[in-house]
Amino acid sequence: MTDSSTSGQGQPPVLQVRSLHAGYDKLVVLSGVDLDISRGEWLALLGPNASGKTTLLHCIAGLLVPSAGSISICGCSLRQDAMGAKGQLGFGCAPERLPGLLTGRQCLEVYAAAKSLTTIDADVLELAEAFAFTGMLDRFVASYSLGTKQKLAVLLALLGEPALVVLDEAFNGLDPASALVLKRHLRVRVSAGRCGVLLATHALDVVERYSDRAVLLLDGRIARVWSREQLAELRAMPGEGLEAALAAASAGS
Amino acid sequence: MGVPQAGSLPAGIPRRLARQPHLAAALLRWRNAYHLRRARFLSVTALALALVSGLLAASSTGRVLEWLAGNPVITFAISAGLFGLSAVRRQARIQADAASSWLSALPTMSSPLIRLALGTAARFLAVLIFVGLAWVVGRVTAAAAALLVLVTAIGMLAGTLGGVRLMGGAAAASPGWHYATVYRARRRWATAPSLAPLSYWPLAQGRFFSRPKMTSRVVLLALLSIPAGRYDVPGQVALAVAAGCITLATLLSLSAAAVGVAGGAARWLAPTTVRLWTFVGAFVWRVAMKQAVILAVVILLACAVDYSQALRVGVKVSVAFLLISCAVSSAACLWACNQTGLGAARRGA
Questions:
Q1: What is the Cα–Cα distance from B329 to B327, expressed in whole angstroms?
Q2: pLDDT digits (tens, 9 = 90+) for A124-134
Q3: How many CB pairs below 8 Å do chains A and B form together?
Q4: In chain A, what residues touch B198 (CB-CB under 8 Å)?
Q5: Distant-in-sequence contacts of B110-115, Cβ < 8 A, 24+ apart
Q6: Would the CB atoms of A82 and B200 count as touching at under 8 Å?
Q7: pTM of structure
Q8: Which CATH fold topology does A1-88+164-174+194-253 show?
Q9: Residues from chain A contacting residue B197 (CB–CB below 8 Å)
Q10: A3-13: pLDDT as tens digits
């Protein structure tokens, strides 16, 4: 099964993945993934553990070279024009990958400079304030809790008004108040057409309430796609809704 | 279909280790490492064997061993110092494990004493085998070898007991948790984002590497190898040599930190548009500056002793060291960028 975006509006999709194959040495993780995300769309990437979600995100971030297939970000091929593609990308790295021996402020400054920004975006600073992160800015990242590292990873991803925001389990470790702040912030960005969001997650409430579409990745292939309307139907259903649909789709495959 | 039966211990692990999960886990870790990276494992073993063979073949090894046997007080001091340090470190690791290990919640008594004794015994066995081989190949006499083993054993006992006693008090006094505090925190934003703070990462790692805890072995060996008062070595020269060792350890720690951290930094910044040489420059320059400052201070101090010699030799050695250090750090950055795709205009074939 392939996924294709419904809201093209004449612009190239912010993310276009075609026939993507990737793996580690002899281990094949992704085999023939197709994915589109438009500006103003929030796509949730679902799947059981070891289904290839993080591998897909790493391919999109250019951290892993796919064995076949293509990835374009805002029309820039990651293979032909890596810098052009990365210029439109905001990638939330895993919290454990953050530099433990820099302070949060230094991380933001370095990352902003690495994205060729002249200032740190005001709304990222506002989000930091809303996260109650400002007090942590001058401490070493190594002393942060998981949730605090997660906040920093998200702030880094949102620097520079990226057209495509890619987040991996971004709500892991966040306290409920901060999680709500982040969901609303992303929703505002997406609704204003400022970016498209690709979020790999197991948090089904985020998928039901905030995502525009959801795809299920099973054994390195896209096994099921839920449209905005189908997600709305699942939300309206009493009981388990998406959880049951997800279990049925996983079992069916 | 019934649930398959599974044993409670992996195959090949002795049953008596069921009550020693730390040892069982360590054994499995070694076994898995061997299966996973057999080539690397065997090449490291071959290298170690080659090194030992080379040492045994060298005639100076015999002279050193004979000298050590002839100076039992120094041998005892070296043995006690090294085994004491080892005991302190091992016990610190055991205490840290007790607080953070995935096995610490198990209802088993994993005896710290056994873990401590095994590590010490393994080190002593290595010494025993080396001295035994030296005796077999005729580098040292039987009497000298026996004396050397005996003095080392006594030093081992004294050092280990001292180390255990030292750490026992420290453990009771404070838990092993601490939060690092930021040195000279800047509580406002820079006028413009800059890659400059990136260079603090290898510096901080270098400080971590050159902590007394990490360099104590090198410094201890250096101090013990200076027979102050013998062979007309004045005290100030002995001190200068010790200070030189500490300085060299600091300089090398900075280079090692730059090499060690380059991969993590490149991976972190890989999804951005930072250019290859901008990254390399930002990463390496402060390490090089710090090393240059240290070397300049050393040359200045040496000038007080011998002005012309310090300038003639010191400047040449310093420049060579800086060039080599920069080249090695830059090579590590370039390799890391190549691995992660940082700064690459194209990614993939």
A1: 6
A2: 999 999 999 99
A3: 117
A4: 102, 106, 110
A5: B110/B19, B110/B20, B110/B21, B110/B22, B110/B23, B111/B20, B114/B20, B114/B23, B115/B22, B115/B23, B115/B90
A6: no
A7: 0.75
A8: Rossmann fold (3.40.50)
A9: 102, 106, 109-110
A10: 655 444 567 89
